[in-house]
């Protein structure tokens, strides 16, 4: 963690709920920002106090240096999480965010804090491997992959000014996740893996391999959809998270 790091810098709370029985921490996907999870925060504000990570190099942090290494990103985030553990904590990460959430959970476990549950969405398990080098493509090639996943509004991608602003963050995040080493570690948190049955970035079998990364309970939830099924199947995903939050309170 750098001297300048603080929870105010890294965490966004759009719907503060200080009296909520649990906390939900959301980790964005590659190229994503905190605002992507605004609808999740709104939907779950009666069930949890929702905090959303804002990585460097985007939106209000766009002038900060990007972090293109998952381990370094997790190292900077983990120390900020400890104050949240005054009640049960649930992590939810999509795509690259799933891996970041997992790595943060591993670091917290070493310091005596364990999230009650870890929801890993749209990402194959760390112990699976694909040789991906999208981050090495030219701008057109990188944008083609992003558009194919439907993870960014195509209107935004067609705006050259906005594109120049988001492209460095997208490339940096792709580099981070595509150079992430195969890991065989575990966490004590229960893991729920969520996956779209048409996701080009992970098969159902690759998502099911997350079961090897927890010493606790494991569940696999398969949705109809592609990589961003969390948007196309938002009400269903919200209910899975709500169930997990309530379960964390019952156990905690």
TrEMBL record:
Biological process (GO), any one: lipid biosynthetic process
Residues of the Thioesterase TesA-like domain: 25-245
Entry keywords, A to Z: Hydrolase
Family annotation (InterPro entries): AB_hydrolase_fold (IPR029058), TEII (IPR012223), TesA-like (IPR020802), Thioesterase (IPR001031)
Keyword Mitochondrion carried by entry: no
SUPFAM superfamilies: alpha/beta-Hydrolases (SSF53474)
Family annotation (Pfam families): Thioesterase (PF00975)
GO MF, any single term: hydrolase activity
Record-linked PANTHER family: S-ACYL FATTY ACID SYNTHASE THIOESTERASE, MEDIUM CHAIN, THIOESTERASE
Family membership noted in the UniProt record: Belongs to the thioesterase family.
Name recorded for this polypeptide: Thioesterase
